[in-house]
Amino acid sequence: MGVEGCTKCIKYLLFVFNFIFWLAGGIILGVALWLRHDSQTTNILYLQLGDKQAPNTFYVGIYILIAVGAVMMFVGFLGCYGAIQESQCLLGTFFTCLVILFACEVAAGIWGFVNKDQIAKDVKQFYDQAFQQALMADAETNNGKTVVKTFHETLDCCGPDNAIGAFTPLWREDLCPKKDSFLKNLIEPSSCHRKIDELFSGKLYLIGIAAIVVAVIMIFEMILSMVLCCGIRNSSVY
Question: Transmembrane segments in this chain: where (predicted)?
Answer without folding.
Answer: 12-35, 56-84, 90-114, 204-228
